[in-house]
Amino acid sequence: MLSLRILSSALLLAGSAFAGLDNETSPTHVFRSRPDLHAPMLEMTLLRPELVAPGYIMLAPYRNVDPGPYIYDNWGQLVWSGAGSSGPKTAHAPHTCDYKGEEHLCYFQGEQHQGFARGHGVIMDKHYRIVKTVESSGAGASSDMHEFRLTPYSNGTTALMTVYQPRQYDLTTNPKFQIQNGMGWIVEGVFQEIEIDTGRVVFEWRSTDHLDPSLTYTFPGRTDTSGNGLTEKTPWDYFHINSIDKNQDGDYLISARHMAAIYKLSGVDGSIMWEMGGANPTFHQTNFNFSSQHHARWVSENETHTILTFYDNASNGFNRTDKFSHGYVVSIDHIANTATMIKEYGAPESSGGMLSGSQGNMQILPNGNVHLGWGEHPYFSEHTADGSAVMYAKVAYRASNVMIYRSHKFPWVGQPLTKPALWTYSKTNDEKSGMVFYVSWNGATEVASWNFYASANRSGPFNLVGNTKKTGFETTMRYNNVTTWGFAEALDKDGNALERSVIQKTFVPSVTLRDFCDEWACGKAEPIRDEDAHYDPYSQVKAEYLSNNRGFNTSAYYAELPETAAEHEAAEAEIKAQHQRAVKARMLVGVLGVTAGIGFAIFVLILVRKQISGAMPISFVRRVSDVRDAISAKLLGKKYIQVDEEEKFSDRS
């Protein structure tokens, strides 16, 4: 047995000493060619790599990560980051779907609430373009995260969607509801089958039409998602529908977590055809029990037997019915009315077991392997049909609080319409350091290798300077020379050109920055510690001093602020000195102004006395008064205006 543990990282930025993770509990990729992407970094353990099924892993983590749909390969390497591709909200359960005869990606997109969501379904083509969104119909709430899928056997014409509908309800009928003095509120479990092109409701089912809330196993206020039933904002979720399937006969299979039951419903009138688990079970469970389950799916049916799969959480986060969660394959005997667990899939031994208080799923793969998503724990695993674990992966650590509602594995061909992204780097712009190409193409699954071209001029000519096999999401190649311009070209497995990047100019760090760089890239700037903090001339001086120094040439001076530490400190000292000189000058002007004012007042008083005694002509007094006012205006920042022999002051513009 070969066990291979992989920390997918680009990952280590081709061995750069400055590669690093964003945090310890939910490691995140750092891509030089796509620094805008912050995809989770998988830690994958391949226990039996030769037995891992082909396909791509599709998941949508949320909480403390960049939320969105993601695709990874069997080695844990990122293939596509869809974060933000269909809106800013949370995505759930990306998977392939057959829409109008072609493979598409389907997933839910919307706003996450406690235990449910509000949003719509998204259908995306192989070029990662949204071709259709699907909404619930009628006068009720928008669709919920728990199920959005194209209906089996519908040729992609209809979709199944869950809806969590708050409504007023008389809860005084049962003391266990703990509401005896007025109307209460419940969440009605609803699902719809919607015609995709028209939005028409093909079929609708409501839990209160068929199942009384008294049959629940989760009463008001008992869990963090049940609600207390007192207000429209805290309705009691007595049902909690979380999966829908449909068979060739047109009947439906649903899972209700808070009822601890799986139901088969008539596609004609919605009546309950049978119930597994729950308060009124149709079948005797011979060798298993379950609770708080998710993701019920039909495998096969005939007149006497039904085979189905589901994920048994065995816990709601407060109570449990087993030590660990499992994936189950169950056979129902309709003659004997028994249900027997025929296969059980648990977490790999290396995990120490897994108990998921919420979320999770089980998927049987085309080769018979089984994929398990571990819900509130951001892990997934793959097992052979006999239960042996062949792969186990962590999207984040338990302490991260990252969750994944469902993860899946499917074949996929992605052909993005975007261009490959390229970043080129040289430490010293000479042959000694050479240069490095970093290239990626988000979502492309057919790239086998890359050609790299370089030129001294943007207009060319460009020479082929290297070719290398694609390695993970981002491929790097060193070139022992340096050129100013370059581009990359993606090739398929047969050597056919797929697409070229735009032409990029080689980045060369400044002399100062170069001390923090190696031959692969430059390191991230570290935050300034309090003890190392410097007086900041850019913000403090500009905001605090410049408004008081009108004669200071601010635009010219601040465009030439120094960059080195020594120059920075010298500038700091000079700015402080200038400020002190400005304050002293202002104080001196004030003192002189007051002194001059007092002296002038004494002088005028003497003149007035002489005028009264007839010793001084009045015209001379007015001229002296004009001089006084002009001097005062100059000192006070005013301009003197004389209109029709009257003296006035106006603010300086």
Furnish the topology, listing elements before pairings.
Blueprint: E1 4-7, E2 43-46, E3 56-59, E4 70-72, E5 78-81, E6 90-99, E7 102-112, E8 117-124, E9 130-134, E10 143-150, E11 158-169, E12 184-195, E13 201-206, E14 241-246, E15 252-256, E16 261-265, E17 272-277, E18 284-285, E19 294-301, E20 305-312, E21 326-333, E22 338-345, E23 361-364, E24 370-373, E25 379-383, E26 389-394, E27 407-410, E28 421-425, E29 435-440, E30 449-455, E31 463-469, E32 474-479, E33 485-491, E34 497-500, E35 504-505, H1 511-514, H2 537-544, H3 554-559, H4 565-612, H5 618-636, E36 638-643, E37 646-651
Helix pairs in contact: 4-5
Please mark out the parts with pLDDT under 50 across 5 or more consecutive residues, or reply none.
Answer: 9-22, 537-564, 632-653
Mean pLDDT: 86
Shape: globular
Known CATH architecture of the largest domain:
6 Propeller
Rg from Cα: 37 Å
- How do the strands line up in the largest sheet? 1-2-26-25-24-23
- What is the number of independent domains? 2
Helix and strand content put the structural class at mainly beta
CATH homologous superfamily identity of the largest domain: TolB, C-terminal domain
Major sheet description:
6 strands, antiparallel
Cα(first) to Cα(last) distance is 85 Å
CATH class of the largest domain: Mainly Beta
Percent strand equals 25-35%
CATH T-level fold name of the largest domain: Neuraminidase
**Helix segment count?**
5
Report helical residue fraction.
Answer: 10-25%
Annotation, overall tally of beta strands: 37
